[in-house]
Amino acid sequence: MSFDSTSSKKLNLDKANNFMRQFRDPDSRELKKLSANQFMEVWSHYDRDGNGYIEGTELDGFLKEFVSSANFIDVSPDAVSDAMLVELKACFMEAYDDNQDGKIDIRELAQLLPMEENFLLLFRFDNPLESSVEFMKIWREYDTDGSGYIEADELKNFLRDLLKEAKKINDVSEDKLIEYTDTMLQVFDSNKDGKLQLSEMAKLLPVKENFLCRQVFKGATKLTKDDIERVFSLYDRDNNGSIENEELRGFLKDLLELVKKDYDAQDLLEFEETILQGVEYSSDGKISRKQLTMILLALAKHHQEEEPGSP
């Protein structure tokens, strides 16, 4: 009898072992400001499968521990009932799930947890890039050795400039920058090769919208001359009547994203060759309105053929 009561006591103690409790002030129960490393500890603890999202049972576990850790007395996360969890999850997702995909990504978690101000700034893109043309310009600027990857040193320079731009002052120590660089690599380097490829950097530096994801390019409605004109002006940033250099790379990056989730600079290069061969591309490194029209019509046709039940 006494053995049973001892083992059940131990079981309750295990249940009350709450990972989030260590990050709360013992007196006020408020969350303490997390360093970059502590933030990564929290992220890695709950993103159990390492797929870049806290979702499903991971999200349930996080919410239960997050809420129960605020209690002044140690309560088990299981004290949060299923009915409470459903209500809690609905409120929580409405507040923090910005892209409404039903799961929490690292940027969304960064808005929820209090963190060092400078580190938080790296997740706060109040002005997402207008288009992939701007993204490709930044990519070229920081991929200084032209390797097709942003390596640790290049990333550190990028983060330094990003913080300088955000705060208009240069008050980040070299040690902190190294910590931030390591953390950002842990977050965004999904294939863990110690550098960022094109698609990984695109997650760190989001573009407002991939214009080519719009329904009109999926064959849902007929492409009009206005649609084509809108796309052309979006990528022809210098208004010189052709899409070239970073404008062309930006357009092709958006196009490539429709068919491939993980891609690097080499993939973009090969994709460029394939696409441009199909539109009687001249060797001057530019595409005209006519060639853009051919690509967009082919894209709409491709989507139509992929639709179930299409002729």
TrEMBL record:
- Ranges of residues in domain EF-hand: 34-69, 83-119, 130-165, 176-211, 223-258
> What keywords is this UniProt entry annotated with?
Calcium, Metal-binding, Repeat
* Protein name (Swiss-Prot/TrEMBL): EF-hand domain-containing protein
| UniProt cross-references to Pfam families, sorted A to Z | EF-hand_1, EF-hand_7
Q: Which GO terms describe its molecular function?
A: calcium ion binding
**Naturally occurring in which organism (per UniProt):** Parnassius mnemosyne
Name the SMART domains on file.
Answer: EFh (SM00054)
Family recorded in the similarity comment: Belongs to the calbindin family.
InterPro entries recorded = Calbindin_Ca-bind, EF-hand-dom_pair, EF_Hand_1_Ca_BS, EF_hand_dom, EFh_CBN
Q: Kindly list the biological process annotations in GO that this record carries.
A: regulation of long-term synaptic potentiation; regulation of presynaptic cytosolic calcium ion concentration
